[in-house]
Design goal:
alpha+beta, Ribosomal Protein S5, domain 2, Alpha-Beta Plaits, 2 domains, 24% strand, binds alpha-D-galactopyranose
């Protein structure tokens, strides 16, 4: 198949990755999260082609692409193609306005690093097609259909945080999102003289999808028991530690640990929002360390590499706090580091990590940034 890579693009879409400051795995428990988009992103170029149904999608970053037929959409055995196909499938259910298009994708967002390159891909595509074919979808509709695409085509029963953050974020703010009502409040963030430094472990253990879905099931198991005594508990969001203690004898240790983590993590989101508002950076850092302990010991979605880097950061007095960010099993740790100490910290961490795991770290600063946007070429 001959790819048309140099077509005259009509539309450009910039679709960012995200970090999550706090509130991990709380989204599918209908709780709270505090993410924001970052400057690393996927850039799409779009143009309609002459065909009523044939489309080409090409990644210039990975030098690979595929052709698809809007009339015969089905799952692919190639992972990234499913994010595209899943979104097209959802859009096709809602409108018959789509026709053939060409699209190229360029990315500086590392994949499998807990920064939601999948949501950036889904939402960027939805955004572009919405503009190109005048589909009239609202931002929230695009967020929701992208999440469903991930469930149906990619097979991860994810919550709504990543898609929401990728599309709705505002520069200089974290989004305090209630994942049940979808109400949100932008919280200004000013960490001066500290910076947010990500250390990419460069590992993404392939447990991620299956273990993710298992965690969701374990939370639901906890809710089913809690509900016997507390009918008002529909999600862990509705539960308290006192309630959980009340049913402790009837649940396994594993389910108890999962539930206690989620209940505590939900609280941490509000504590974090308050600490940011009060500019209490020491507390910001302490909440991160506490959260990582929960991620590692009770929710068990960390790994040796992330644990090592978080532990390492504790030996540096210029780091206020750190934790693994995102779904887990590797990806990036998020570190709050004094601006004068960034180079020393990164160098020391790189060396220690190399000695321990024989892997070269990737380190970069991130800044809370704006969500998906498009412009005509
Ligand atoms: C992944 C999912 C999100 C969220 C995080 C964990 O990124 O896509 O919905 O559950 O993991 O917080």
């Amino acid at each position: 198949m001959e790819f048309i890579k140099n077509f005259k693009s009509e539309l450009i879409v910039e679709s960012p990755g995200r970090i999550n400051l706090i509130g991990e795995h709380t989204d599918y428990n209908m709780g709270f999260v505090l993410p924001t988009a970052i400057e690393k992103k996927i850039v799409f170029q779009f143009a309609k082609n002459e065909s009523p149904n044939k489309c080409q999608v090409y990644s210039t970053t990975f030098n690979t692409g595929f052709e698809l037929d809007l009339n015969t959409l089905e799952k692919s055995s190639v992972e990234w193609e499913n994010y595209i196909l899943g979104v097209l499938n959802e859009i096709s259910k809602r409108t018959n306005k789509l026709s053939g298009f060409n699209c190229t994708i360029e990315s500086n967002l590392p994949t499998g690093s807990g920064l939601s390159s999948s949501a950036a891909l889904e939402c960027g595509l939805a955004f572009g097609l919405n503009d190109l074919f005048d589909l009239g979808l609202s931002k929230m509709e695009m967020v929701k259909l992208s999440q469903i695409a991930e469930h149906t085509y990619a097979g991860t029963q994810c919550g709504i945080m990543d898609q929401f953050a990728s599309v709705m974020s505002q520069k200089g703010h974290m989004l305090l999102l209630d994942c049940r009502t979808l109400e949100y409040k932008p919280i200004p963030i000013n960490l001066e003289p500290y910076k947010i430094i990500l250390l990419n472990t460069k590992v993404s253990h392939n447990l991620a999808t299956s273990e993710y879905n298992t965690r969701k099931n374990e939370c639901e198991e906890g809710v089913a028991i809690l509900k016997q005594d507390y009918p008002e508990v529909n999600y862990l969001r509705d539960a308290s530690m006192a309630m959980l203690e009340g049913v402790k004898e009837r649940i396994s240790e594993t389910v108890y640990n999962r539930c206690s983590f989620i209940i505590a993590e939900n609280k941490r989101v509000h504590q974090m929002a308050a600490a940011l508002t009060a500019n209490d950076l020491e507390t910001v850092g302490q909440i991160l360390y506490k959260a990582h302990e929960g991620i590692s010991k009770f929710y068990e979605v960390s790994c040796a590499e992330s644990d090592f880097l978080v532990e390492f950061s504790k030996s540096n007095i210029h780091v206020l706090g750190a934790r693994q960010t995102g779904g887990g099993f590797g990806g990036c740790t998020l570190n709050i580091v004094h601006k004068n100490a960034v180079d020393d910290f990164v160098n020391a961490a790189t060396q220690a990590y190399r000695e321990k795991f024989n892997i070269e770290l990737d380190a970069f600063e991130v800044k809370p940034s704006t969500g998906t946007f498009s412009y005509s070429n």
